[in-house]
Write a structure and sequence with these properties.
Blueprint: H1 31-45, E1 48-49, E2 61-67, E3 73-80, E4 85-89, E5 100-101, H2 108-112, E6 116-117, H3 120-123, H4 137-146, H5 151-155
Parallel strand pairs: 4-6
Antiparallel strand pairs: 1-2, 2-3, 3-4, 4-5
């Protein structure tokens, strides 16, 4: 199921892709599990898996698409590289702020695989409504520099 809760989101360490070496490396989302869920989602959508791009520095997410019989993507799937979060957008970008879509009906395939499917309301939640206590001064510097004001902008970024 899609996680409906729009308030009370608590950012964990690594949500921005930044980490301190003294704290150890960030967890990583298993790409095999993502690909498996992606294929299940494509079957549920009556389409097929389109282009899949693994995370490339400095992006914090992998991207993929499910395409219809004409080869046109219905939406772009964003998979956070460090936490099992899924989001949907209309087009591929290096970063997002408010350009998110509501999850399609077939997004449940990701939830069944253990991912948290974030909806547009959650992703566009103002940072003032998010528990950001884990963020470091360096992360806040990036947030201010890039003018980020939403949860989705913090977690689906390409800061360096």
């Amino acid at each position: 199921m899609v996680d409906d809760e729009s308030t009370g989101f608590s950012l964990p360490r690594g949500a921005t892709g930044f980490y301190s070496p003294k704290d150890g490396p960030l967890p990583e989302t298993d790409l095999r599990v993502f690909r498996s869920a992606l294929h299940a989602a494509a079957r549920a959508a009556g389409g097929r898996v389109g282009k899949v791009e693994g995370r490339a520095y400095p992006r914090t997410f992998h991207t993929a698409s499910v395409v219809n019989d004409e080869g046109k993507p219905s939406s772009i799937i964003l998979c956070h590289a460090y936490h099992p979060w899924i989001a949907f957008a209309r087009e591929r970008r290096d970063w997002y702020s408010e350009e998110f879509l509501e999850p399609p009906s077939w997004a449940g395939a990701f939830a069944h695989a253990g991912f948290v499917v974030l909806n547009r309301e959650q992703l566009t939640t103002p940072l003032s409504d998010v528990d950001t206590s884990v963020l470091t001064q360096g992360e806040w510097r990036e947030i201010r520099f890039y003018g980020i004001t939403t949860l989705g902008g913090v977690i689906f970024n390409a800061w360096d």
